[in-house]
Amino acid sequence: MYWKLALTSYSIFIHMLEIEIKSACDDPEGVEKILEDLGARFKDTLFQKDIYFAHPARNFAETDEALRLRNENGSFTLHYKGPKLDKDTKTREELGVPISEPEILIKILNNLGFTQAAIVEKNRKTYDLEGIEVAIDNVTNLGNFVELEIQDEDLEEAKARLFELMNKLKLRKTIRSSYLELLEKGFRSN
């Protein structure tokens, strides 16, 4: 397995390979019905607010990286996402650390020259189907999407499993862009 968990006296640090595909979705209720029929387990309903930061000396749009602070139902995590590693999916390295004092972190980042680049908000329903996390997202100013994700498995095997489920869910082509990139392009799913 590729992920690492390092426990220190201060926090938990998570390192993983995120293998993901995303598709716009015209019928989220239909996807939920198919998931039910396939035996998926409903996990949670979440509200996520992501604050993305711009680096003071490097253009993350050019390097295909991201630094974001996520508020998920009141719990905060700082994430670094590396460049995409695969032409068919959104596979990338992701590093994350829980944050107990988000206001102080934002002040530190601002003092170092980082600036707030954008905010992405979404309502998310999550399911688990045989180790695949399925997220049905309603993203503010974008519309509805479905993300399918496996963490830390063999890339080719994971891709095959994700595309097989995508077909079962009757989803159309994949979108490799992040929600931030889609907002910047003025994309609307429906």
UniProtKB/TrEMBL annotation:
<dbReference type="InterPro" id="IPR033469">
    <property type="entry name" value="CYTH-like_dom_sf"/>
</dbReference>
<dbReference type="Pfam" id="PF01928">
    <property type="entry name" value="CYTH"/>
</dbReference>
<dbReference type="InterPro" id="IPR023577">
    <property type="entry name" value="CYTH_domain"/>
</dbReference>
<protein>
    <recommendedName>
        <fullName>CYTH domain-containing protein</fullName>
    </recommendedName>
</protein>
<feature type="domain" description="CYTH">
    <location>
        <begin position="16"/>
        <end position="185"/>
    </location>
</feature>
<dbReference type="InterPro" id="IPR008173">
    <property type="entry name" value="Adenylyl_cyclase_CyaB"/>
</dbReference>
